[in-house]
Amino acid sequence: MQERDDQIFLDTLKIINNIFGSAPPLVGPDTQCIVHLLQEIYGRCVKPKQEHLKGGQEETVYGELMPEFLERLFDETHLESDSLFVDLGSGAGNTVAQAALTRGCKAFGIELRSAVAAIADTMVKAAIVRSQIWGIPVGKIDVVCGDMTRNAEVLEWIQAADLVLANNLKFPPSLNENVKNLIQFMKPGAILVSLESFGLCGVNRSGAVHSGADDVGLLFEVSTHQYFSGDVSWSNAGGEYYIHRKIA
Q: Where is the DOT1 domain (predicted)?
């Protein structure tokens, strides 16, 4: 009887192995699933602490680019697994987490406010854990707290970056001027996406370059693009964003 039971067990195990052996290989979740996963992480890590995201001064006003809009930006700028993404003013870290999870690239960000940077740290750690659970390959992810214009690590990121994001719609003029000192160190071919253009510097109203102008804006080719209702958190209306490609 024992031998018969053993043989039944072995025969059954062989059938199960054949079933699993003929099944298609397991694959990770697609981009749409990852975006939903990010929304779940956001709901757990960011929404309960939204009071910390409300800034009073102009330079700390908080606004987000929505996940679907970010995916379009990543497609437009050809963000790949071997790319480096940098977010200047990374807020709660959602852009950094999304770039890493949906593209598998290295993704870094810097945030000035310590309370917001702490939220970003929580979100990034949750994203890393989810990537391990779901088998999603990601590059290095890091969000630091500090002044983007005075951080040596940020300068290293900028020099190596393939895509830099600056959600600078509410940046004061002085901060945009300081950002210009950073982006001049981007490598040729690298791309900067911003909500306010850096490309009009050194150009007069007729479109001609000022005599002797050497502003950083002249280092980039700039194209204007449209975003639409639902693409950003701060408005139901559309608007413009700018893609700068470093040419020198």
A: 1-248
